[in-house]
Amino acid sequence: MATLRKYWHDVDKATEQALLDVIKIAFAINMSKFYEGDDFYVQRIKSMYVRGIEYNMKESLQYGKNFFESVIRDTGNIPVKLSKRDLQLAYNRSMIITRGYINLVVDEFAAEVRVMANNMRALDMKKESIITYFSGEQRENRPLFSRFNNRIRKIIDDGVDRAAAFAYHEGMKRQYASQPNVQFTWVAVGDKRTCPDCRARHGKSNLYNEWRTIGFPRAGFTFCLLSCRCILVPEEYVDDELDLSKPLVRKTFKIRGGKLYQD
Ligand SMILES: [Zn+2]
Predict the structure, then answer these.
(1) What is the pLDDT of residues 119-160, one digit of tens each?
(2) Which residue among 87, 114, 131, 181 is buried most deeply as judged by most CB within 10 Å?
(3) Measured in angstroms, how far is the CA atom of residue 3 from the centroid of ligand 1?
C-alpha cells in the first residue's frame, strides 16, 4: 500500500535529482553570451533546462499513477487503467507549462543582464570589468544570479510535482467520471510554505464539479498559484499512516554556493 507520505517522499526524491542535474547548468552558463545578447545561446540554455528535468518529470508521472492506483485500491475498488499514451498526454501538458516558465525566467534573466550592462556602459565602465562582474555574481551566487537560480529551483520543483499531479488527476477524473456524487477532500502539505488559501481549504470536501468551480489544487485559484502542492482524495479514502487533520511536512530544497541543501 502506497500512502501520501510515500507519494510525497518519491516526488521529493525526483525533485532532488532534477535539482542536482540543473544546478550544474546554472553554474556553467557563459555570462558573456548573456551580456552580448546572444539569443541563440539563450535558447540553448532553455533547452538544457528542459532536458535536465525531462527524465525526472517522467519518473514523477509514474509516482502520480501509482498513488492514484493505491488510493483507489484502498477504497476497495479497481483502478481504471492509465495507458502509456495517457501518461504521455499528462507529461506533454505539464511540460508545456514547465517550459513556459523556463522560457520566461531565462528571458527575464537575460534581459536583466543586458539592462544592467547598459547601465554600466552608460557610466563608462570597462567592458572587461562588466563581464568580470557578471561572472563573479554567478560564481559566488550573489543577488543577481541567486535570484535567477532560486526561480529556476522553484520551476523545477513545481515541474516535478506537476507531472505527478497531472497523472494522478487524470486517473481520478476517469475513475469517478460516472459517479458525480463522490466527495473529494482537499489535503494540504501543512509546512511553513503552505499558503493561507490552502491552509483554509485543508480537510474540506466537495463534489468534483464543485471543485471545478472553486478551483482544483494548482489551478491557480489559491494564493500559491501554480506552485500549489495540495491534492484531492476521495472522501472515503483513509490513509492508514496519516491522519488527514494533521498535515504533512514536505522537504524543501535550497541552493547555496552552487550546492543543494535541504531544510
Ligand atoms: Zn495548495
Answers:
(1) 999 999 999 999 999 999 999 889 999 999 999 999 999 999
(2) 87
(3) 19
For the chain, counts of helices (H) and of strands (E): 8, 5
DSSP 225: G
CB-based contacts of 119, cutoff 8 Å, min separation 6: none
Beta strands 231-234 and 183-187 are: antiparallel
The total of other beta-carbon atoms located within 10 Å of residue 203's CB is: 13
What are the pLDDT digits (tens) for 29-87? 999 999 999 999 999 999 999 999 999 999 999 999 999 999 999 999 999 999 999 99
Report CA(94)–ligand 1 centroid distance (Å). Answer: 17
Element containing residue 191 per DSSP (H, E)? none
Ligand 1 ion: nearby residues, β-carbon < 5 Å: 198, 228, 230
How far is 113 from 104, CA to CA, in rounded Å?
14
Separation of 220 CA from ligand 1 center, angstroms?
9
- CA–chain centroid gap for 228, Å, is 9
Ligand 1 centroid to residue 154 C-alpha, Å: 15
Ligand 1 center to 194 CA (angstroms): 7
CB 144 within 8 A of CB 112: yes
From CA 175, how far away is CA 101, in angstroms rounded?
A: 31
- Expressed in angstroms and rounded, the spacing between residue 224 Cα and the centre of ligand 1 is 6
Distance 221 CA to ligand 1 centre (A): 9
Output the CA 190–ligand 1 centroid distance in Å. 9
What pTM did the predictor assign?
Answer: 0.91
